[in-house]
Amino acid sequence: MNMSSSLNVNTEAFYTMLESAQKPLYEGCNISKLETTARLSSIKSSHNMSQFCFNKMVCLMEDAYPSESHIQSNYHQHMRKVKELGMDVQKIDYCPNGCMLYYKHDENLDTCKFYGHGRRLP
Questions:
Q1: Rounded mean pLDDT of the chain?
Q2: CA dist list (Å): 62 to 52, 56, 67, 70
Q3: Count of CB atoms within 10 A of residue 101's CB?
Q4: Residues paired with residue 101 on neighbouring β-strands, in sequence order
Q5: What mean pLDDT do residues 84-103 have?
Q6: Do 96 and 58 belong together in one domain?
Q7: Shared-domain flag, residues 40 and 76
Q8: pTM for the whole structure
Q9: Residues 78 and 116 reside in one and the same domain
């Protein structure tokens, strides 16, 4: 890929993000597609929501909102949209007890330093 095509891809992604930030979720709605995506992602993360629960919540939103709304219909579509906007996701292993993350200086450990349990992916 040459420099020109790389710039074109980045420029296109930037304009897609601008459009998502300006386009309402549906006609008459006061929040944008981008804000909806960001807030749903934040809620999932803050409440340690499973993908199954997230999909059920989004399914309810699809049923409740007008058919022309632009809600991503499941977690994988949502994450694809997040990645298109340049916001990458990093998965971090954790102890099943929830007492530690295998991150930074602990990322090379094979077992929990408190209880000896194996790693688990989120």
A1: 81
A2: 15, 10, 7, 9
A3: 14
A4: 94
A5: 77
A6: no
A7: yes
A8: 0.61
A9: no
